[in-house]
Design a protein that fits this description.
heterotrimer, A mainly alpha (647), B mainly alpha (179), C mainly alpha (108), B: Four Helix Bundle (Hemerythrin (Met), subunit A), 6 helices, 74% helix, C: mainly alpha, Helix Hairpins, 4 helices, 79% helix, elongated
């Protein structure tokens, strides 16, 4: 058995090596070599992740922690940061998701990108992303995590703007990068506050130093620090108010959307909060903010998703909405449920994105679902796997999404910091999700074909369908490791493996006895209610888009004003432009014109003119005439000598 | 007036006059010949100072080798006409002449004022009392024992110079030569 | 009496003054002549002037080191003449000109 230090090194360096290999030969357009190098690199990472996970399982639950420190990165007074990496219960799962889903998406990309000229560059970026994501999840201090945090942001920017010759796509990349910058600035501030409060940035030490008393003030150090970190998370994980970049990020290649903007990078915020749960838990105000923001995002993004016609935009808003669920979960203290939904979401959302990639590929780069329909018979495998993802996301038992989403909704209701309003928001979001996902299915795969006569849809090749099938399988069984107690008891003492696994690293809310007081019947009732709501909503959508295709237009007309608001995404982008970005640009312009051009520049020019004036006076002496130079020596000798002799 | 004094004044006159003609002759070949005359004069002055070996070296190296080099190069250039022998520019010319004059005046003044009393030849001198051959011997001993490192370095330098001079004169001229 | 002794009795000062005058002549040549080769000759003149004072000091102070120094100076001077002339030759071959004013164009 390889020891864990070597395994972690292999895990990290394998994608980096792949990045270097593909990065050096980035001009090549041979998709087979590039794809093979990148996929094998991530595959090796996956194998070492599995081995690491097995080692982790072998350890006793209290000591499940494989730490390694490669070197001391920096040591400034109290601040000591190692290039240290930790595999524990949380990051162990994350590395499995990242490398596992990552490998599948790399494989998918081989088929999807084979016609692209920059395919080698693409795979190099993808490998770099995997490397940075692993740094993010494995880093043993906030600073190390931040390195990965920034690294994935960079890779996201590079990949969104991958087809940068299209200025809209380049702008989307820029938007993602700048929006993330705002969050990252807050993240840095949060790190400062935590460092000044606790004197360390090491996550393990921070969690150990977390105060035992709950901090009720809004201005307490922990509350402020965690709020700042949460703002950083809203940037990376696309929550209100910084979610605007994620829908635009769909400009990138579809496998990128699947890997970065659905399965891994955008979940970094949730992951970070779960990692720091002992700190967050003592700041109930922060937790409340997180829960409210999460619930609001879940509903808001879902409503926008109702009106979108771009297959990837629908999925993007769905991602924002599902991330909202995760934040809702961690906000009510259900960190385990949040992580659980993170994992199942990674499976089914990656599946759906790859499925949409397969559709787009088969439709020759067509993304508008109004021009699809009836694709079921052309793309049986894509349709079937997409169906599995659909069932998972709308929460039909026993698919993966049901267990995780139900767990979140139940805890939003029953947790000590939960509230029935949060449950209601979550249930509403679930209904909306069921509606728009059914609408997507109906418009894309079912009903009558609206495909352009010139386009001949075709099923994708094996490299693209195999990942779909694997992810489809995971979307079915992925939830079975976290079956809730009530169902587990009913089916015959199936334990909740997930909860047991995470127990040692997740702190319970201070008054966790409250959960017991709720009746199991309540849980059954709420579970049934949410499934029922989702089913009704899905059936309604089916009726509207398949049975009576014209009815949606009538409803649209009936609620015209509301529809306009939602269809224009609540004018959030426009509001940002008119209230924040444009005033900023105006201020900057006036600063540029009045301060920089008219004051600083003029001052410097004055100084430069003085220097030049002095220079033009003295440059007569420096005329290149060597005899004149000799004369200066002579005059100098005379002056010095007379000075010496006169003395 | 003793013979020594007469010899000094005569040689001083010769060297100064020929030195002047080096810088005043418009045709460079005359300058070269005047320089040769100066060299010979300096060699003779060395003889009056009992430095016989150096006098010989002076004749061979300067009046012989170096002068031949100068004359050869002048012949090589075949300068039909000297457009302008002296630099133009009244102000700089005046400053140059003035600085030269003041410098020589300062040195001469300093020498005559500062060293009023002639330096006494010390009893332990190894030159004045020593006969002719012994000066050369003392020079050789000093050169090959005390200053042997400098001597060797000079040898290496001469080799480098020889190679460099050949390389320089063989080049087509200029660092951007194309043909 | 003093007047005559200056002429009849040759001291170190006489040689030093001679050396100074020759040095000044060489310097005037360097400053005023425009022919590169004459310039080099003037430099030789200056070196010789220094040599005179070295040998004179050596003679009057009774130390042989001055003569050793002259030996070194001669070597350097010969080398300098060789390199200088080689440069002059290569420049002349390129530009057909040995006027020192031409070097202004090299200032860049």
């Amino acid at each position: 058995m390889l020891n864990h230090e070597l395994l972690i090194a292999i895990l990290l360096l394998s994608p980096l090596l792949g990045f270097f290999i593909n990065g050096i030969r980035f001009r090549s357009s041979n998709y087979l070599i590039a794809g093979a190098v990148a996929t094998v690199a991530v595959g090796i990472s996956f194998v070492s992740a599995v081995l690491l996970f097995l080692q982790l399982v072998d350890l006793s639950p209290e000591n499940r922690r494989l730490a390694v420190s490669f070197f001391e990165w920096m040591a400034i007074d109290k601040l000591r940061v190692n290039a240290g990496f930790v595999v524990d219960q949380i990051s162990g799962i994350m590395i499995l998701i990242i490398t596992g889903v990552g490998t599948l998406i790399h494989l998918f990309s081989v088929g999807y990108m084979h016609h692209d000229k920059g395919v080698t560059k693409y795979f190099a970026y993808l490998n770099l992303f995997i490397f940075n994501m692993l740094i993010l999840v494995l880093g043993d201090s906030l600073l190390t995590m931040f390195v990965g945090w920034e690294g994935v942001g960079l890779c996201s920017y590079l990949l969104i703007g991958f087809w940068f010759s299209d200025s809209a796509k380049a702008a989307a990349g820029m938007k993602a990068f700048i929006t993330n910058r705002i969050g990252d600035a807050a993240f840095i501030l949060g790190m400062f506050i935590l460092f000044f409060t606790f004197g360390t940035l090491n996550i393990h030490e921070l969690n150990g130093l977390a105060p035992t008393l709950v901090e009720s003030s809004w201005l307490g150090a922990v509350t402020l620090g965690t709020l700042m970190l949460f703002i950083g998370a809203t940037g990376k994980s696309a929550q209100i108010p910084l979610y605007v970049w994620l829908p635009d990020a769909m400009a990138g290649p579809t496998p990128v959307s699947a890997l970065i903007h659905a399965a891994t990078m955008v979940t970094a915020g949730v992951y970070m909060i779960v990692r720091l749960n002992p700190i967050f838990i003592v700041a109930p105000n922060t937790m409340m903010v997180i829960a409210i923001i999460g619930a609001a995002t879940a509903v808001l993004a879902a409503t926008i998703g109702l009106t979108q016609y771009d297959i990837k935009k629908v999925l993007a808003y769905s991602t924002v909405s599902q991330l909202g669920y995760m934040f809702l979960a961690v906000g009510v203290g259900a960190f385990g449920a949040g992580m659980f939904h993170l994992m199942t979401h990674a499976f089914f959302k990656a599946l759906m994105f790859l499925g949409s990639g397969s559709v787009i590929h088969g439709m020759h780069e067509e993304q508008d679902i109004r021009k699809m329909g009836g694709l079921k018979k052309y793309m049986p495998i894509t349709h079937f796997t997409f169906l599995l993802g659909w069932l998972a996301i709308i929460g039909i038992p026993p698919f993966a999404g049901f267990f995780s989403k139900d767990e979140i909704l139940w805890l939003a209701f029953s947790s000590p910091s939960g509230h029935w309003a949060l449950w209601a928001a979550g249930a509403l979001g679930a209904a909306l999700t069921a509606f728009y996902m059914t609408r997507l299915m109906a418009l894309t795969f079912w009903g009558k074909s609206r495909v352009d006569k010139k386009v001949h849809p075709h099923e994708s090749g094996l490299t693209m369908t195999i990942p779909l099938m694997v992810l489809g399988l995971l979307s079915i069984v992925g939830g079975w490791i976290g079956i809730p107690h009530v169902i587990g008891e009913y089916l015959g003492h199936i334990p909740n493996y997930w909860e047991h696994w995470l127990e040692p690293v997740i702190k319970k809310l201070p008054t966790s006895d409250a959960i017991v007081s709720h009746q199991t019947s309540t849980e059954w009732a709420l579970m049934g209610a949410s499934v029922l709501i989702a089913s009704i909503s899905a059936i309604t959508a089916y009726w509207m888009y398949v049975v009576r295709p014209g009815s949606s237009e009538k409803i649209k007309k009936a609620i015209r004003p509301v529809y306009e608001v939602v269809n224009n995404k609540y004018w959030v982008d426009e509001a940002y432009f008119s209230w924040i970005i444009n005033p900023l640009i105006q201020t900057s312009k006036s600063l540029w014109y009045y301060i920089d051009v008219n004051f600083i520049d003029k001052m410097t020019f004055k100084v430069a003119d003085m220097a030049m004036g002095g220079g033009s006076f003295l440059k007569v002496l420096q005329n290149g005439n060597m005899q004149q130079y000799a004369m200066y020596i002579g005059v100098g000798v005379v002056v010095v000598l007379s000075f010496v002799l006169m003395r | 007036m003793t013979a020594d004094a007469f010899l000094f004044w005569f040689l001083a006159f010769v060297t100064v006059v020929s030195g002047l003609s080096v810088i005043l002759m418009v045709n460079p070949i005359y300058s070269a010949l005047s320089l040769a005359m100066t060299m010979i004069g300096v060699a003779a002055i060395f003889v009056t100072l009992n430095a016989y070996f150096l006098a010989g070296v002076q004749l061979i190296v300067y009046a012989g080798a170096v002068m031949v080099l100068f004359v050869m190069v002048l012949m090589l250039f075949d300068l039909k006409h000297e457009i302008q022998a002296f630099t133009r520019g009244r102000l700089t010319g005046a400053i140059k002449i003035a600085s030269v004059g003041i410098l020589s005046g300062l040195i001469v003044g300093a020498v005559t004022m500062g060293l009023k009393t002639p330096v006494v030849i010390t009893a332990s001198s190894d030159v004045a009392a020593a006969p002719t051959v012994d000066t050369t011997r003392a020079l050789a001993e000093n050169l090959f024992i005390k200053n042997v490192l400098g001597f060797e370095v000079l040898g290496v330098m001469l080799l480098v110079i020889a190679v460099g001079a050949v390389a320089l004169s063989r080049s087509k001229g200029g660092t951007h030569a194309r043909d | 009496m003093l007047e005559t002794s200056i002429f009849t009795e040759i001291t170190l000062n006489h040689y030093l003054v001679l050396s100074a005058i020759m040095f000044s002549l060489g310097m005037a040549g360097v400053l005023l002549r425009r022919n590169l080769i004459v310039l080099l000759m003037s430099i030789e003149l200056m070196l010789n002037a220094v040599n005179i004072s070295f040998v004179a000091f050596s003679h009057y102070m009774g130390k042989i080191d001055g003569q050793v120094m002259v030996f070194f100076v001669m070597t350097i001077a010969a080398a300098e003449a060789a390199v200088g002339l080689a440069l002059a030759v290569s420049i002349f071959k390129r530009f057909k000109e040995v006027n020192i004013r031409f070097f202004e164009h090299l200032k860049g």
